[in-house]
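Section 4.2 – Deliverable D4.2 (structural model, holo form)

The reporting period included a commitment to supply a predicted holo structure for the target in complex with cytidine-5'-monophosphate. Inputs used:
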Amino acid sequence: MEKDVIIACDFAGREEVMNFLRKFTDEKPFVKIGMELFYAGGPDIVREIKAMGHKIFLDLKLHDIPNTVKKAMSVLSALDIDMCNVHAAGTVAMMSAALEGLTRPDGSRPKLIAVTQLTSTDEERMRRELLINESLEETVLKYAENAKTAGLDGVVCSPLEAASVKNRCGKNFLAVTPGVRFAGGDVNDQKRVTTPAMAREIGSDYIVVGRPITQAENPLAAYRRCLNEFLEK
Ligand code: C5P
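Output (structure tokens):
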């Protein structure tokens, strides 16, 4: 299975992201475009970055009634993206509709993964505000199972959950994991972090890395270090 490092391009607009991507001349990293950049730059920024030769994970985390999500996904499928996502909390019916909408007339489609529980949600909040009384781990695993039932390719989860997700859903079910930091590096606002090498050992297929690369003094060197550690080159 192909493993890769995805750079979270959390930039405010076109100029900032282009300044960043210009630093990469030999390699074309897989990039994640999230809500901030997409709402600022729209579909044009996706087309422009794709035309530069990058693979794209469009991280818009759709969550609405199945029909709306299906139609929105069908619009996104016209963009030449490689991966996109929904919230598993939208139910199996919503995830199935998303998959249907995303599948192009020729049968091809980007990978579709589901957000289980956001890493910003803790068990206490889940109980108190969402009235979910199962443990956080069991909730993540159940949501992953739902995503698998709907035919999705995998989930976004903490690297620390990657092994149990694979146990429950099979080794080919993708674990896409943010929360990665270099040994001794800044943790920022992430709570539970692992190094690229540890993420590989636990079973992540793709690591999503933002600030350790985007805010590094030398982003190209940081990207290469991350790739080497994750792919054990
Ligand atoms: O800068 P940093 O490496 O923390 O960036 C991680 C990226 O992954 C951000 O774009 C963040 O929104 C995203 N993400 C996350 N935790 C989740 C889901 C997405 O950190 N559970």
